[in-house]
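INTERNAL AUDIT FORM
Audit reference: QA-55
Scope: verify that the stored structure record matches its stored sequence.
Auditor: D.O.
Record contents follow.
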Amino acid sequence: MSNKKGLSFPLLIIAIVLGWTIYKQFNFENFKFEKPAIAVVYIIAFAIVVYLLVKKDKKKDNNGQTD
């Protein structure tokens, strides 16, 4: 039997909120952020959350095989 985990709901909500905030902060007319300093923080946090969502669990299952 497989012991796979699904997506983490809280991390998914955080990723959606951060993505939407980054989108709203970006000015598409002149291709700049309204507040560049906070945009960098949002982008770093978004990248960390996305990494945590997509990383694979490297633990071995009962048969000695990796996922």
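Auditor finding: record pair retrieved intact. The chain is about 55% helix and 5% strand.
Action required: none
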